[in-house]
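Notes taken during the Thursday session

The instructor put the following on the board and asked us to keep it in front of us for the whole hour. The protein is Glycoside hydrolase. We were told not to look anything up and to reason only from what is written here. First, the residues (251 in total):
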Amino acid sequence: MATGAIRGKRPGKAGGNWRAAIARTLRKIGGAIVLLLLAAGLALWWAARWTPDRTLYPTQGVTIDAGNGDVHWGSIKAAGADFAYIMGTDGSAGVDRQFARNMAAAREAGVQAGAIHRYSLCQLATDQAANFIRHVPRRADALPAVVWLDYDDRCPDRPTRALLLSELATFLAQIEAHMGKQSVIAPGPAFEADYKVTQGIARTTWLRRDFFEPDYGAHPWAMWQANDYVRLSGAAGTVGWNALRPEGEMR
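Then, after some discussion, the predicted structure tokens were revealed:
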């Protein structure tokens, strides 16, 4: 009986050790998860606030669209925005619903602003130019218009490079005649890799790369979208933050 009783205790002890080992493992996993969450939170906090060094890039600005809601431009200026680019038109018919309001409010707050046109590969250049001219007024104090070049899930077309460059040249000629100044082209990395627009179109370039200077254009960029995750008290969601290359600087 005694031997049987002793033998009966061993499985209980082994079971206790097994349960204790599981508990220790779960505590370690839980601790690791907490650390990962803390690290992710710190990374997001840092990303939402990081902007390029002002000693290297004294002039910096913001990119705004309707997704940022009713923007308080006084707060945007107080956050350090020296200029703003505002989403204006899209393809042959699209218009950012906050464009007119944002342009007027930015000027009223003393923030120099310019319009962005999101170029579509699925629509004719002349139709897109007509849309831009219809909704973006010519003003001497406006910044040069920006032509945003990127792929869009709504548009499956992939024209040849020769056709794209020809159409883009037509679009630029028409909107520049309307605005009275040359435009800026802003190709994304994938778009530039496929079409090499900066080699074929002689315009000032605005390139994009978060946290690191972009190097994918055929010549040095004039403006850099350095962080697409900035959060400001004057705008809903995230905004793009841009740095202007100092005049004459070719780093």
